[in-house]
From TrEMBL:
Domain Inosine monophosphate cyclohydrolase-like per the UniProt entry, residue ranges: 2-182
Name of the encoding gene: purO
Class of this enzyme: hydrolase
Stored HAMAP family: IMP_cyclohydrol (MF_00705)
Protein name in the entry: IMP cyclohydrolase
Amino acid sequence: MYVGRFVVVGPGIGGYRVSSRSFPNRRVADRDGTLTVAPTPDAPPTDNPYVSYNCLRTVDRADGPVAVVGNGSHVDPVTEKLGLGYPARDALALSLLALDFEKDDYDTPRVAGVVGAETATVATVRRDGLVVREVDEPTLVATYEADDPEPFALDADDAAGAARELYDHEFEHAVCAAGVTVGAGGEGVDSAFVNE
């Protein structure tokens, strides 16, 4: 099944995977702790605004670090609002409403999640509405087919394992993936990615 790009978030762990038929020549790169999706050097030129973006950012808050994962430019304003002290629900809702679904040929939804050590929130904005949900188990939301949050059996317990598990999942057309863990008690944030 092809579900497009997707996020999985749960308390303490999360990840993001690019699945693409149209733009498979992409990879994740680490830019000083921010994970960015960008074209590979051999990718054909494109002016598509949805091909390059930060897919994973972190922010230290008074109540502990959090990580944001998502499929587009909305990752940045979500992260900024969290840094200003907004609750995860508000940061996600305000940013997704402001940017709305992608204005491409498919009205592609935007998907995102916020991972804290003890909490997680998943969100999507589609043509037909906005969904923001606090979750207590790993939960997936994708751009196609699975575009309403649903439980996801994530077995990994570290960032590298989460990235690998999402990349290897049976959903079609895997391109690259990122994983993140947020530890309790000041253990911090760990991130990893898979490009193949």
